[in-house]
Amino acid sequence: xxxxxxxxxxxxxxxxxxxxxxxxxxxxxxxxxxxxxxxxxxxxxxxxxxxxxxxxxxxxxxxxxxxxxxxxxxxxxxxxxxxxxxxxxxxxxxxxxxxxxxxxxxxxxxxxxxxxxxxxxxxxxxxxxxxxxxxxxxxxxxxxxxxxxxxxxxxxx
Length: 157
What we know:
Blueprint: E1 2-14, E2 19-21, E3 24-26, E4 31-32, H1 40-52, H2 58-61, H3 74-87, E5 91-100, H4 110-121, E6 128-133, H5 139-142, E7 146-156
Parallel strand pairs: 5-6
Antiparallel strand pairs: 1-4, 1-7, 2-3, 5-7
Helix pairs in contact: 1-3
């Protein structure tokens, strides 16, 4: 059996926080607001994996009202999601995700992010595709108020 899942996440920029995308710290003067480390990319991938396997979303599994998840690394959340889907007999075929922001420029980080995600999921780097784009100065990402991410995954059982 194969299934496709999609995920989306968005967070506003915040001062006095590190910017972490795909588990990689990005050199930028702002971070993202959120209960965890606010890694929009990993949150979108988690939701896509959970959605493909009909197991809810990360908010259900790791609610922001629960203090044990305060400032948790989203790499840890991704590993936990991977364990959840594997318990159901599912494995990741591939993930394709897009980061949407005007700033910071992310091209130099993409390969590190891919490698980090592949390692967290114990898959080959070739199974992970990460892209970055702008929204041509439209919307909240275009006004440099935050970052959004989309993800699509293929899961097999």
